[in-house]
């Protein structure tokens, strides 16, 4: 090395040793980085990592006049930055003499006498404890070789262990091994001379590191495979395509071998089915033997029966849309009821043509199916929640700062049950903790949508807010969204397709579009480049915006009109993705809370329906599907249900002073349907009472039995309107 004079090639200790034959130059990267008289004056690809060759020659000549205070040889290029200290030394000598080199800002160096030290209080426990990296003992001493975590009282490390950990993890994954703190921990370690490289973790850079995980199981495991070409034969988009078990993924079947009509149907292997059956979460499907005419090669085989078709909808009367939707559960039904189902005592009800919107697009139907799937997934995640409670004191007028304070309090845990108390006067009436929690999450999601953390009109991407990065607000936003989904709050519904794909598939696999650029000037510049119709106009446009291109790292010669396509693509990637690398990584980490991001990556289509699309507007049909009607044998079930559904029709059509949101709020304390659904499920009871009663703790609506529909409607409107008016006041 021209600076330290050593031949050692130890990248972890001295940085990468590079030899440049054309310049007759060999240098350690750390020696070059810490030298006191040289700066990076070139671009990254110029000279040696931005250090110009002429500058390196000058630094070598300067150092040749300085003697190392440690080895007493010439070439000491590094000096202590302490005032009035004139010590100089080589980088390897400084390491040996326990000097500290700060790999940040001005790359300062401190000699063994002036180096920064960590503060140890008298209350610090003596003795020794395990280094949480190598698990060997480390003494609690204020020594160079020992470092203490700034965020954990009892976390101690060997300096050498921390340095190897930092080199392996990189800036994105290096954090406290005990509490997972990143910002405070990294700041202290940089001050104490730990080098944290600005690159991805080593395990992320290893080529084909996860190749084994890409193997897909391709084998038919049913008892009798019908495929003549064998159990391993797989022909996509045909009946011989292999479908894997939806739960374990380690068993498969040909579509034809399990009587599956299409790839969209779910399939479970025998083992998973038996486990679910024991847990009571799976209803055993009927099986049927093929008739003689359905036998294959004269051999009978046992196939699963496809799911039964939905019954036809009855046209019904305008007010009695009985036969599909709300789940009317009636105990002790009389034998004369033509709606009785012998097996389950459940009366199904259907919507009339007035209620149901038969013109819904396939996209809307698909979104409904995906939202139902998300509901089941979130219920699985909810199992993690504990009975321990965390109380959040929230001011609705200052929702963000009070929510941030609550999420950062010491006793906050995402797995605890959350109780919300509104401290401002306007919301003191919300004494119901469930209603307060619904209202809190609704306000929080609305604030996030309009905050500076996101940019765009409808579909939003992350913005670049350096103050928010510094305060780790992107992580908190991701954590709040994850907590809201699992704890029964509303979904954000404002993610752009690009942001969602970056979270699920990784930013390197996403191609942004022009509409993702929120800055109007930037979008117009890119648009001018994109729609240039000749080489001369393209070059003229590029000449006018050369500073803009240079800032994005896209300043390069253009010799053909077709070059604009790659240029536009690179500009979009820079402005939409590369520019927000740190916010995106922090936001992803926040979404990992309670396992939400992992489920998003496993079920992208399902989560896209709630994160990228606004919630479905409440309709009479939606409310019908939501409630289960329970009643006893002495009540006219059909007449009561008829009044209830007719009333919903009137509300939806605007023939009422209340709204569907008012009805939902009256019963559940929430004016929206959470992605996870309600717990317990909303129910309706018809009782001999004077006025309706909404029991929000039980999500139960008790309705009066009346002789006429008009009486029923008058009582509903009077009660709901007055109750909500009092609460709002």
From TrEMBL:
Residues covered by region (Disordered): 286-319
SUPFAM superfamilies found in the cross-reference section: FYVE/PHD zinc finger, Hect, E3 ligase catalytic domain
Location of the PHD-type domain: 1-115
Pathway linked to the protein: Protein modification; protein ubiquitination
Main location: nucleus
UniProt keyword Cell wall biogenesis/degradation present: no
Alphabetical UniProt keywords: Ligase, Metal-binding, Nucleus, Transferase, Ubl conjugation pathway, Zinc, Zinc-finger
GO terms, molecular function: ligase activity; ubiquitin-protein transferase activity; zinc ion binding
Keyword Zinc (UniProt): yes
CC annotations in GO: nucleus
Compartmental location: Nucleus
Protein name as annotated: G2E3 ligase
Name of the coding gene: G2e3_0
